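testing teh design pipeline on a random one, pls ignore if ur not involved
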């Protein structure tokens, strides 16, 4: 499956999507990551040009994932609204810190919200989508039915005790992109500012 993961964080060290990407790649999926790094002035939003560039990268994706902090949640909403118009048949999932602590807010804008850890959840979601089966019983997911507007709130699965089961975060920059001075370009090693977080 082709998956694009987007971080609305203000800097490109979002550990959440890096680990999710590693889990997906280990399972044989094709993953691109886009860091929509923007100013810490949270009144600033993306331009139409920036969002259009993002949509070009997302073309052909079978699933699009969004991650945000509380501070950058309004930017995540802007991304979701824009991309959903471009790709109305593509499923979107919103995860990360804000989705975990405010799923009631996130489900207003995104039909699938991941509450809690996403490593096992994303694999369940992808495998179920590939089989064209219902995702309604996947633990850690809140799902909104567009027709009835009913929200399914699945229970949260136990935490992963054995951390050795989780692959190291994805720092394979060949499949990464970053927003830089209004242009989305290929990620470079220097974008990490000499630090890798674990």
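output:
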């Amino acid at each position: 499956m082709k998956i694009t993961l987007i971080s609305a964080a203000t800097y490109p060290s979002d550990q959440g999507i890096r680990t999710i990407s590693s889990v997906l790649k280990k399972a044989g999926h094709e993953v691109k990551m886009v860091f929509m790094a923007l100013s810490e002035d949270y009144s600033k939003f993306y331009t139409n040009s920036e969002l259009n560039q993002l949509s070009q990268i997302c073309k052909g994706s079978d699933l699009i994932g969004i991650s945000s902090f509380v501070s950058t949640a309004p930017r995540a909403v802007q991304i979701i609204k824009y991309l959903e118009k471009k790709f109305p048949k593509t499923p979107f999932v919103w995860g990360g810190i804000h989705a975990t602590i405010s799923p009631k807010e996130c489900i207003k804008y995104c039909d699938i919200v991941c509450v809690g850890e996403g490593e096992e959840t994303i694999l369940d979601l992808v495998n179920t989508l590939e089989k064209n089966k219902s995702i309604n019983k996947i633990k850690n997911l809140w799902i909104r039915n567009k027709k009835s507007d009913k929200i399914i709130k699945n229970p949260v699965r136990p935490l992963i005790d054995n951390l050795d089961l989780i692959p190291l975060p994805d720092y394979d920059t060949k499949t990464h992109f970053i927003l830089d001075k209004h242009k989305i370009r290929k990620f470079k090693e220097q974008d990490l500012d000499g630090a890798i977080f674990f």
